[in-house]
Amino acid sequence: MRKPIILAIAAAVLAFGGLSARADQLQDGASAFQNGNYGRALASWRPLAAQGNPTAQNNLGIMFLDGKGVSQNTSEAVRYLSLSAAAGSSLGQNNLGGLYRDGKGVPRDYNKAAQWFSAASAQGNSAGMYNLGLMYEMGQGMKPEPFHAYMWYALAADMGNMPNAVAHRNALWGRMTPAAQNQARQLAVACKRNGYKGCR
Questions:
Q1: How far apart are CA 15 and CA 38, in angstroms?
Q2: 3-state DSSP call for residue 68?
Q3: For 66-70, 116-120, 139-143, 152-156, which range has the lowest pLDDT when averaged over its residues?
Q4: Distance between CA atoms of 152 and 157, rounded to whole angstroms?
Q5: Is residue 142 domain-shared with residue 102, that is, in the same domain?
Q6: pLDDT at 22
Q7: Based on the domain organization, do 186 and 133 belong to the same domain?
Q8: Do 31 and 23 form a contact (C-beta atoms < 8 A)?
Q9: Do the domain assignments include residue 113?
């Protein structure tokens, strides 16, 4: 069974309220995390998360999920990822969707997973797009739908940072008739033209 992609840590500066000190703290935490200095990452991100920074909340959620720098605590992971997702972070939305899809720390709920993956995708999050593609292809919480699976894989692949999406898009393409290929391609073009909003 294919696993959904969950992005680990984000060091991106938020477009809104991105004060230099906060950006530096986010980046400092990301560098520390990548170097395995989880205590320093925690010290950088925890105050920002308490102030409502959705990127820091996402990052703390992942730390609690994986038990890096903190005791593994799925309930805390769900709490932080829920805060991040509700604040509009596409990273938090994608990661929370992954928890609902896997039933990790929350009851498995494909409808909620699809809602969070859709919210992330509408913001151009390639992992959310890839995860929606998987749900459509495998029929998780819905009837299997190859056109929409292809559409989401193609959109994620276009972002250039999702090699799994490229492989899934190409495999699905090879199983489609020329007419189905044309329809799937048109769906992807229309979704991209609409800024990834309202795509089903």
A1: 26
A2: coil
A3: 139-143
A4: 8
A5: no
A6: 76
A7: yes
A8: no
A9: no
